[in-house]
Write a structure and sequence with these properties.
This protein is 18% helix and 26% strand.
Length: 276
């Protein structure tokens, strides 16, 4: 997973041209000039960024494990993780050593990345116009046609593989974790639970396949898998805690078509208010 603290580099080069003058009092054709590098300064010294190379590794993992969700496509998403981070006006760009390309954002701050060989060679970053650590960055894989307020377990398993490759999720991990991660597939073998973000504050989460139902107990909600003393080192702290849930996605007794039913806090409050 991604380090807790990252050096954020902002190498944006603009290309300019110059011309040569005349000799012996006559105008001569201007020779072709080498481009001049100019650094753009936009007033944001430490923007929230992710490595394009790592996010491309996530895209490769999506293709490698696409059978987990064959009808789905990959997006990445930004989740504001601090109070006061405005979602309106957020902009992204793919910024490398020789050019800067805008990245279109959906209203929910979701986006797709191009496979750009030059950006890869340039060591480009995906750069936001918000300060570092403003967002939790996560993959999103959703099979079309699911019932409202549900996720599909195979989609979530694929998100784990993408996140494992791209190292987007920030969290405190012991040295033992990295030893395990280097030797086994933590998404399909690791006995622990993987973290996901819901759209809003969750009230209840239930796994459903056929007649089998399992309600997640409270230790699997609200970031409770991480002790309170170290929650500040995780992306979900403090603004996303009420939207988090953990799943033991390596439990093969639940097939990929298992549905994860999400009941949201505001829906529960509304139901209570209209009850006779």
């Amino acid at each position: 997973m991604s380090p807790l603290f990252q050096c954020r580099l902002r190498p944006l080069l603009l290309l300019t041209a110059c011309t040569a003058g005349a000799a012996w009092g006559q105008t001569a054709p201007a020779p072709a000039a080498a481009p001049m590098a100019v650094v753009q300064v936009d007033g944001l010294a430490d923007p929230d960024t992710q490595s394009y190379r790592r996010m491309r590794k996530g895209m490769d993992a999506f293709e490698q494990h696409h059978a987990l969700a064959p009808a789905a496509a990959l997006r990445y998403r930004l989740y504001p993780r601090l109070p006061g981070v405005r979602a309106d006006g957020v902009r992204l760009r793919l910024q490398g050593g020789t050019r800067s390309l805008p990245i279109a954002l959906d209203p929910d701050l979701g986006f797709t990345l191009p496979r750009d060989a030059q950006a890869l060679d340039d060591g480009a970053d995906v750069v936001s116009n918000r300060k570092a650590r403003s967002f939790a960055w996560a993959p999103e894989v959703i099979t079309p046609g699911l019932p409202p307020n549900t996720r599909r377990l195979g989609d979530l398993r694929l998100e784990c593989q993408i996140d494992r490759a791209a190292s987007l999720l920030v969290g405190l991990k012991t040295p033992a974790y990295y030893v395990i991660e280097a030797t086994i597939d933590v998404c399909s073998t690791f006995p622990g639970a993987w973290l996901y973000y819901a759209e809003r504050a969750v009230f209840n989460v239930t796994m459903v396949h056929g007649q089998r139902r399992q309600v997640l107990l409270s230790p699997y909600l609200y970031g409770s898998q991480a002790p309170v003393a170290i929650q500040i080192f995780y992306d979900f702290y403090p603004f996303l805690i009420d939207r988090t849930y953990h799943l033991k996605i390596s439990d093969s007794s639940w097939p990929d078509d298992t549905l994860i039913e999400l009941e949201y806090m505001d829906d529960a409050v509304l139901s209570a208010a209209v009850a006779p």
